[in-house]
Design goal:
Layout: E1 5-9, H1 13-25, E2 29-33, H2 36-46, E3 50-54, H3 62-71, E4 80-84, H4 89-97, E5 102-105, H5 110-123, E6 135-138, E7 141-144, E8 149-152, E9 155-157, H6 161-171, E10 178-179, H7 180-188, H8 197-210, E11 220-223, E12 227-230
Parallel strand pairs: 1-2, 1-3, 3-4, 4-5
Antiparallel strand pairs: 6-7, 7-8, 8-9, 10-12, 11-12
Helix pairs in contact: 2-3, 6-7, 6-8
Length: about 240
């Protein structure tokens, strides 16, 4: 089995070595970067399976690296876990809004970090081709599940891996309402560290990408007091 490649980007070398040692013990291959520019260069060149990205690094900050990863077609699907000493909720939300798939604060338990890495890799793993419909079309929204391309009224839309997975899940069940907890279970899988608020953040980002006006959405609808649904195709 091919070993998954994890890029660790952090200016604290002791932390990089600690994480690298434990990931390698778990069967992962590791790349290292000690500043933001090198992190972005290695991401573009090596296309790792996941990036562990420190928020505060010299030169190019982690937030800018995450934005760059999400903004380029050849790297936009690479999952990112933010790793930072900043624990304020606003920092976590900002990281998620920029496209991070998860967020862990320092100090951390190595076992928790590895569990999060495995969970993000599981939930971003492509499904077998025979389980994947070819395409979805609804009111100008077109999704090509084979190429992971999304357009709205012919306009290309860039989505992160998790945003695409969330959209795919909802469009596969139009009209059905899901609570935040149900979406966490069905889309995020058995990841035990994600809070219900994370669902709201990703729904907001998804609406910003595909809705003409995310305040009056026509695709992803809020059912007050319950959760979210994709518009009923028969409505």
């Amino acid at each position: 089995m091919t070993r998954k490649i994890i890029l660790i980007a952090d200016d604290e070398r002791d932390i990089v070595e600690l994480i690298a040692y434990n990931l390698e013990r778990e069967g992962f291959s590791v790349l290292k970067a000690y500043d933001g520019k090198r992190a972005w260069d290695r991401t573009r060149q090596s296309k790792p399976d996941l990036v562990l990205l420190d928020l505060m690094m010299p030169g190019t900050p982690g937030m800018d690296v995450c934005r760059a990863i999400r903004g380029h077609a050849e790297t936009s699907a690479i999952p990112v876990i933010m790793l930072t000493a900043k624990a304020e909720p606003v920092d976590k939300i900002l990281g998620l809004e920029l496209g991070a798939d998860d967020y862990i604060t320092k100090p951390f338990h190595v076992r928790e970090l590895i569990a999060r890495v495995r969970a993000v890799l599981r939930r971003t793993k492509p499904r077998p081709e025979d389980e994947t419909p070819e395409a979805f079309d609804f009111r100008g929204l077109h999704i090509d599940f084979g190429t992971y391309r999304v357009t709205v009224d012919g306009r290309p839309v860039e989505l992160s891996t998790l945003e695409f997975k969330l959209l795919k899940f909802l469009t596969g069940r139009p009209g059905r309402v899901f609570s935040r907890e149900q979406l966490l279970d069905r889309v995020w899988g058995d990841e035990a560290f994600v809070e219900p608020r994370t669902v709201d953040v990703h729904i907001s980002r998804l609406r910003a990408a595909i809705e003409a006006d995310k305040e009056t959405p026509r695709f992803i609808l809020t059912v007050r007091g319950i959760g979210y649904k994709f518009a009923d195709a028969d409505a």
